[in-house]
Amino acid sequence: MKKTTKIVLASTLAAVLGVGLVAGAVHAQAPGPMGRDMGRDGGRHGGPRGPMQRANFARMQEAFFDQYDTNHDGQLTQAEIDQARKDRLAKYDTDHDGKLSLQEFQALWLDEMRPVMVRSFQHLDRDGDAAVTQDEYLKPTAKLVEFHDRNGDGKITKDDFKRPERRGETVSPAPAAPAPATKGQSK
Question: What's the CA angle centered on 17, arms 105 and 40, to 5 degrees?
Fold first, then answer.
């Protein structure tokens, strides 16, 4: 399957599920609150076409077909998708007025996002004890400043997040300030 086809399918899947764009097209993002480190670092942990991304995409496809392939023939028709969406809306339309209020939509959203929340929890719970400790919670962002601080000043600014203009161009640290002149040296 071509990369563009995968991206279009992932975007369509996200829109159909009502969860927005899924973490920068199938979890290809720089380090974030959940500590994923794919894409911007040149593929150090799988990269944009790495095994983690392919596995996530496969899980998304499986979930999509599980939800919408109502006759289980391995094919989707627009009628199947439309009916599944209508059934989903009806399930959360508690006042049966044919539309979702914010409160009703919240219930749908939380149900849709639960698997993502569980995966995020499991990602943080490295020792698998069903609890996230302070150390486990802090670890994914422990080197965030070090990773993004392009000029070496120990802080992140918006400029540190800007990418170089051309492929292969690197961002150099800021030049060191000249040493002050001492007695006996000419300027």
Answer: 115
